From TrEMBL:
Keyword set includes Transferase: yes
Lineage: Bacteria, Pseudomonadati, Pseudomonadota, Alphaproteobacteria, Rhodobacterales
Organism per entry: Cypionkella aquatica
Protein name: Acetyltransferase
PROSITE patterns in the cross-refs: HEXAPEP_TRANSFERASES
Family per record: Belongs to the transferase hexapeptide repeat family.
Amino acid sequence: MPKLNAAAPLIHDGCQIHNAEFGSYCEVGRFSRILNSSFQNYAYCDQLSDITNTTVGKFANIAAMTRIGPTDHPMQNASLHHFLYRSSAYWEDAPDDDAFFAARHARRTVIGPDTWIGHGAIIKPDVTIGAGAVIASGAVVTKDVAPYMIMAGLPATPLRARFADSIADRLQALAWWDWSHDTLRDALPDFRSLAVEAFLEKYHG
């Protein structure tokens, strides 16, 4: 795996990046498209991901070929086609529909910290994925997902919780994803070896 650093994200070949912000130790896989989005510290996506109008939380793990925040077509109009809003591509005297694009950009998707978005998953606009949640491969998420919930299916429904509510609440209160880089390094042996209950007992009390 290539070395990551705090100064700049690792952007692999063939990516399209527009109006995007990246925190420390971020990575974007080959041929991904990132539009109007932000990646917080340690977040990454694998190859062929398409992420639009999204806030990607710290330590988010996004597998290949995911689609997050896909924009919708105007189903309420006589036509679905983008000549309605990308009009300047078709006529010299027809401007694009700026209000339509502004409404699209306002529909933000939020991926919480330490989440896992599986291969080929789709997460619709205006959806929030809670901390520690897991989205199964191929799932289509149309509604908010609770923290530490595992979701699967089309449309996605809860499969099971990763932890009891008491554990999930303590993990969110601990918010280890906000720790400094040095603190994370010091705790690395415990992340690797301790069960979640023992980890919380040591660091959260």
